[in-house]
């Protein structure tokens, strides 16, 4: 179920199509592992806040437009170990994985916070991803 929700999310972000579906299955696994390793959405937010990127991720949580993130900021927010973990899970090289995360993280966080705030129990990845089902 979690894999399907992430697949739907990533398919929407990547624009659908056959190539996107191939990529989305790998990206789904990688994003799921990344979020799980951080303790879900709450952990991801804390990680970005600790790295001085709280305003950026806070913009994704809010109901306003999602601020863009650069690959350099992704690397700062997640650190090289998480980037490497995501890269291995997706089969991407670390640089490509970082660029891909810059595309998908803002929309993923935004989708998990539809009311502009982290849902109660937001550290539950599966609960947060249920909210994405109708968004993409």
Report the C-alpha radius of gyration, rounded.
Answer: 13 Å
CATH architecture: Orthogonal Bundle
Give me the CATH fold name: Arc Repressor Mutant, subunit A
Fraction of residues in helix:
over 70%
Number of helices: 7
Number of domains: 1
Our estimate of the beta-strand percent is under 5%
Describe this structure in words.
- By secondary structure, the chain is mainly α.
- The chain has a single domain, classed as YidB-like (Arc Repressor Mutant, subunit A).
- Helix content is 72%, strand content 0%.
- The chain is built from 7 helices and no strands.
- Helix 1 crosses helix 2 (17-37).
- It is globular.
- The model is unreliable at 10-22 and 127-136 (pLDDT under 50).
